[in-house]
Structures are given as C-alpha cells and as structure tokens.
Amino acid sequence: MSSSPDKAENAIVCTICNRTEPNANKVLECMQCHQCHHFSCKKIVGNAVRKWKEKEYFCSATCKEIQVGRTHPDSPSVMSEVRKVLDAVHNMQEENAKTRNYLEKAINELEKSQEYLCSKFDKMNGDISKLSSNQRVLKKDVDYVHEENVSLKVAVEDLEIEVDRLKRSTIANNAIILGIPALQNEQLGDILNQICCALDHNLPGGAVLELSRLRDPKKEQKYPPIRVVFADVKYKEQLFEKKKSLGTLLTAKLGQSFHGVNTKVIIRDEMTSHGLALDGVVLTRKCQGAKIQKVRKRSDIRNLTQGKSTQLSSFDDTPPRPREKRPLSTSSPNASSIVEPTPKKVM
C-alpha cells in the first residue's frame, strides 16, 4: 500500500495536457522547475526531438534566467539585473534623503511655530491676568461710585422732600377748584360766591386774598383750574368741611351761566409738583400677613419694583409724617387733562 504514493510522486505528468507519461523519452523536463512537457504538446517532431534532448530545456525565460544566475553569476544578464536593482536602491536612497530633509525642515518650522505660539500664549496669559486685576480694581471703584451715587440720591431726595415741605408751607392757605369751564368776561369772585351759595356757606369779608385761573401756555384748556388764596387756613378748612358734607356738586347748580354743564366740581389743596407726583404715604406688603412697608419717596418706589423691600421705611419703626394734603373721594372727568403749574408760574 505504501508503493502507490511513491508511484504517484515519481510519475511523469505533462503540465500542458495533464496526462501521465510512462516513457521518459517522450517528454522534456525543465532544468529549473522540473516541469515535464510532451514533445507532441510542444509540437516538436522528427529530427528536432533529438536536438532538444541534446541541450538544456527550460520551460520559461524566468526559469532560464534563474538557472543562469545560479551557474553563471557574472553573466551579462545577471549583471544587468544587479545594476537595475542597485539603481533602484540608489534612487530610493536619494528619495529617502530628500524626504528626510523635507521632514527635518518641516519639523524645524513646526518647532519655531510652536515656540512663537507659546510666547504669544504666555503674553496673552499675562495680559489676561493684568486685565483681571484691573477689572477687580475697576469693580471696587464702580462699587464705591455706586454707593456714593446711592447716598447722593438719598440726600437729594431728602432735600427734595424738605424743599417740598417748605413749598407746601407757603401754599398752605391755597385751594384749587376743578371742573368749572372758563367763560368770557367771567368774574371769579362771582363764581366763588355761587359755589359758597351751593354749599350753604358764607365767607367773611377779607377771607379771600386772590383768585386766578391756572392756564397752561402750551395748550388750550376748557377747564383751567381756579386758584383761591385764603387769608387764613381756617377759611379753607371750613369750605372743605361744607363740600364734604354736601358730597357731589355739579357745575349746573352754580347758576344759568353753567346751564347744561354736568361736570363735577372738585375742591382740593394746592399741591406742589412733587406732591402731584407722589402725594402722601403708600402702605404696601408682599402678601397677606406680611410686614407692612411705607412708600414715602421715589427711592422707595424703585426699591419696591426691584424687590428690595428691606430698604423701605418700616411701618412700625418710622414715625408718621404729618399729612398736609387731603385725599378726595371724588374725581373730575377732566382732571387727567389738567396740568397745574407750580405757584411761581401762575398766570
């Protein structure tokens, strides 16, 4: 059984037709790769068979070159191939040298760029540190200026309140009558007497020092306010009491001159510009049961809108300020269009 593999290995097989040939004289064997070819497959017949048997046979040019290189290393073909290999190696060495030089230059440029960027980053880091330091100093200065500004605003508002208090004291005897239309050739004294008659009130002689209309020079007014300057504050208070007792007073009740005019007659204190902007004291609290706060001036309003209720005047801690102006339970339909100038701008 072991003879079968040996026979298969020693069998002559033509690599062209793939047939086994028992007679070795009918085939050519390659000196290099030992492949076998039939003479007939190579189309070698007759006398040519003898000549092919007398010389070395190579199945391909590659096998011939390999065999020649082994047996004749100094042959021209081998030297030619060696020169080709050497030239290729030399060219590769030159390319590698060029590539190495290029890479060295690129690396040097990258190192220079990295050093430049590092220096710039160091400078930027120093500038940022300096800027941060300056910012902290500036913030301290701004905080100081802000505190000074807040203190100055508080001082100015306190001065405004004091000036307003002085102005109120100068006009404490004055009253303003609203809701009476202006008539041609009107006599303000007669109008005041008609109001007193409607209120069932008698003013003594000399109780009124001055009567005038407060007109706005910038626009025409149908109901310019009437200013009444009393000789004493008691006369004003008596008139207010009568008006309060009567309630609503219509202009039509003042006589035929005002027939068909149904506006309400309003009598109130003369107020300063500050008093018109913020009159009296406003009480406020955030929710039911919370601590009551007082709004007395503009800064309290700003603090209230900003949610700084702790800065508002405490209802329990702040002593009550005397109220110099009285609130009115009624309002005139034309009161929003009336612009009342300060006492110094009376026309």
TrEMBL record:
Domain of life: Eukaryota
Record field: compositional bias (Polar residues): 302-316, 328-339
Positions of the UniProt region annotated as Disordered: 299-347
Compositionally biased tracts (Basic and acidic residues): 318-327
Name of the protein in its database record: Uncharacterized protein
Lineage summary: Eukaryota, Metazoa, Ecdysozoa, Arthropoda, Hexapoda
